[in-house]
């Protein structure tokens, strides 16, 4: 996730900016930069790819002396990891850093044809838009406000101009921006942890607000430039607590922020009015899209389960398509053959998993087109696939993958929805799923809010067990596998995921009162079958927890019913309950939730 820092006041801006950017390093980034105004109002920019240490090396050669500046750590979304794409961007007399995604940057860029762009970023387009207003003689605040009214998407920005020394303009819509009020100095940041050590008094900008910051403080307005009088708040907590968003662990933060990050995954890719989905990245011609007749989905662990769930939706959306989902560490060694006109989806959060990368290379050797479904921008897999799409889940710091899983499934469903248009797919189903995707962030937020306490109590009740079975049918089966993985990898409870229908083929022999079972039961055509499995388990003393969207009477030891407008994508909602359950069980067992024993965030060894 990108980070923003700004400063105006008595100190040397460069030092405050670098300190602040270091506080934001935990969010993940791939380039960094600062822009400052010196005391002769001359602007200076320093940018670098890689870590902030690289930027410090650049500044060692040419230190910045000014007392006003803005800084940025970039998590690439539009445009690769290059110095020219790093922020700050400057166009004319406007210097700008930006967090978020400008969805309509392409149409805005077409309207700014008088500008020659140096980067591939949406941010530079915004800087040009502001400059196109500013050069008409209005103030920078007015130029920014006017520009932001034409923007669709999310932003947190900080801007300055040599024409208005001592002033930084900030604004936010969907991406946090905090103004720290110091003694004859003002510090701006996208995350309160960067303000600690300078001040604990801050104004948290709200969406649609803009502020003029000087060393004396800040004046806040709405985008119609109506003056507002926000009350400053006191920043609580230490640096680590703030970096976790106030949650006890990154894992809980990443579970709870799925609704927010999913907006970035979906941004500009679905049109619920038209009932259509569209991904920019696959690099496939219309003919190639029409010719695809087989999809192989490759991944490890959670990425594999994401592919398995997505494959159910692909088959529903594209009747003439066959799919297979494979574990990379197995597939890479098999003598596999793929039919003509196959496409391989390579699924990986880190984009560095050794087995998945090796599998990608084996598939490419067979001349099969490969598409990445990856979270980390610029990662090895993202660079080696023929095309692909970033899932935009933001940095996932906890070893256990949660928000990336949801983003991976959603991204592959959007790919399938787009592909279905070329294969005479079920238009009504495409529209239905598009509509569900558009409300999915809100429904996930509601599910987590409605049931967090219930799940926490459930975890307390079952945290002493040492054996568990996770069960589900149809699209709830991959969720059962993923739920079992989440539990085992952070609580160390032996948990196995199974297709409910498989119970009587062996696993039921395990069931007694020392086991608990988690049933994901969908209110669909397999409901009665799923209930059958539940009765079999309870008849043998197994303790049954049920996560369901059904309102029917169900006999279980514990049941959590979600009430949502979502139907087809219900497994993604049930999975958030499983994520919370695994988290609270692990916490009750006193485990290191973010760094579980024996595990690494990216398995770069075979
Ligand atoms: C997920 O919770 C696990 N940490 C692990 O299974 C992970 O999904 C797997 O190693 C694949 O990682 P990748 O998505 O980065 O390729």
Keywords:
606 residues, alpha/beta, Glutamine Phosphoribosylpyrophosphate, subunit 1, domain 1, Rossmann fold, eight-stranded antiparallel sheet, seven-stranded antiparallel sheet, 27 strands, binds 2-deoxy-2-amino glucitol-6-phosphate
Description:
- This protein is of the alpha/beta class and 606 residues long.
- The chain has three domains: 3-241, 4-Layer Sandwich (Glutamine Phosphoribosylpyrophosphate, subunit 1, domain 1); 245-425, Rossmann fold (3-Layer(aba) Sandwich); 448-593, Rossmann fold.
- Helix content is 35%, strand content 23%.
- The chain has 18 helices and 27 strands.
- It has an eight-stranded antiparallel beta sheet with strand order 3-2-4-1-10-9-11-15, covered by helices on one side. The chain has a seven-stranded antiparallel beta sheet with strand order 5-6-7-8-12-13-14. Strands 19-18-20-21-22 form a five-stranded parallel beta sheet, sandwiched between helices.
- Helix 8 runs parallel beside helix 14 (403-420) and helix 10 (301-317) packs antiparallel against helix 16.
- The longest helix is centred in the C-terminal third of the chain and has 36 residues, at 427-462.
- The protein is globular, with a radius of gyration of 25 Å.
- The two termini are 29 Å apart.
- The mean pLDDT is 94.
- The structure holds 2-deoxy-2-amino glucitol-6-phosphate.
- 2-deoxy-2-amino glucitol-6-phosphate binds at residues 300-303, 348-350, 353, 356, 399-401, 489, 602-603.
């Amino acid at each position: 996730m990108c980070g923003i820092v700004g400063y105006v006041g008595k100190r040397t801006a460069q030092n405050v900016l670098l300190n602040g950017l270091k506080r934001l390093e935990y969010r993940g980034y791939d380039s960094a930069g600062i822009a400052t105004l010196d005391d002769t109002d001359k602007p200076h920019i320093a940018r670098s790819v890689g870590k902030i240490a690289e930027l410090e090396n650049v500044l060692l050669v040419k230190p910045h002396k000014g007392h006003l500046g803005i800084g940025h750590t970039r998590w690439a979304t539009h445009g690769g990891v290059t110095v020219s794409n790093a922020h700050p961007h400057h166009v004319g007399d406007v210097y700008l850093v930006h967090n978020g995604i400008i969805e309509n940057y392409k149409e805005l860029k077409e309207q700014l044809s008088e500008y020659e762009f140096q980067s591939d970023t949406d941010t530079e387009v915004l800087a040009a838009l502001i400059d196109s207003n500013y050069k008409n003689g209005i103030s920078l605040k007015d130029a920014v406000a006017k520009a932001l009214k034409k923007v669709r998407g999310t932003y947190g920005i900080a801007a300055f101009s040599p024409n208005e020394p001592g002033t930084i303009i900030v604004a936010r819509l969907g991406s946090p921006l905090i103004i720290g009020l110091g003694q004859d100095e003002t510090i701006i940041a996208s995350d309160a942890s960067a303000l600690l050590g300078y001040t604990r008094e801050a104004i948290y900008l709200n969406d649609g607000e803009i502020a003029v910051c000087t060393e004396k403080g800040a004046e806040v307005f709405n985008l119609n430039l109506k003056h507002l009088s926000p009350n400053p708040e006191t920043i609580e907590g230490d640096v680590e607590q703030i970096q976790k968003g106030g949650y006890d662990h990154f894992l809980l933060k990443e579970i709870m922020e799925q609704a927010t990050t999913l907006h970035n995954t979906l941004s500009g890719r679905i049109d619920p009015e038209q009932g259509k989905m569209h991904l920019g990245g696959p690099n496939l011609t219309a003919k190639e899209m029409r010719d695809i007749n087989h999809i192989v989905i490759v991944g490890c662990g959670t990425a594999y389960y994401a592919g398995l769930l997505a494959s159910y939706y692909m088959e529903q959306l594209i009747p003439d398509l066959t799919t297979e989902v494979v574990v990379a560490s197995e597939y890479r060694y098999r003598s596999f053959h793929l039919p003509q006109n196959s496409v391989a989806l390579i699924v990986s959060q880190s984009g560095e998993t050794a087995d998945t990368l090796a599998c990608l290379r084996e598939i490419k050797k067979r001349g099969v087109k490969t598409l990445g479904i990856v979270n980390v921008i610029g990662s090895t897999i993202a660079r080696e696939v023929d095309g692909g799409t970033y899932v935009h889940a933001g940095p996932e710091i906890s070893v256990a993958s949660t928000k990336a899983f949801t983003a991976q499934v959603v991204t592959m469903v959007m790919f399938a929805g787009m592909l279905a248009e070329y294969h005479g797919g079920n238009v009504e189903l495409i529209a239905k799923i598009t509509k569900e995707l558009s409300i999915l962030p809100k429904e996930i937020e509601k599910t987590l809010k409605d049931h967090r306490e219930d799940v926490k109590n459930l975890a307390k009740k079952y945290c002493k067990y040492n054996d568990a079975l996770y069960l589900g049918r149809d699209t709830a089966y991959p969720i059962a596998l993923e739920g079992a993985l989440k539990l085992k990898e952070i609580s160390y409870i032996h948990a196995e995921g199974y297709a409910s229908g498989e119970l009587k083929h062996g696993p039921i022999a395990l069931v007694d009162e020392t086991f608990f079972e988690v049933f994901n039961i969908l209110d669909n055509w397999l409901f009665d079958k799923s209930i059958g499995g539940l009765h079999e388990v309870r008849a043998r003393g197994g303790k049954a927890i049920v996560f369901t969207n059904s309102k029917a009477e169900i006999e279980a030891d514990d049941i959590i019913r979600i009430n949502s407008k979502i139907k087809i994508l219900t497994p993604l909602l049930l999975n958030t309950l499983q994520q919370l359950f695994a988290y609270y069980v692990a916490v009750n067992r006193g485990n290191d939730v973010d760094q579980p024993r024996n595990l690494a965030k990216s398995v770069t060894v075979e």
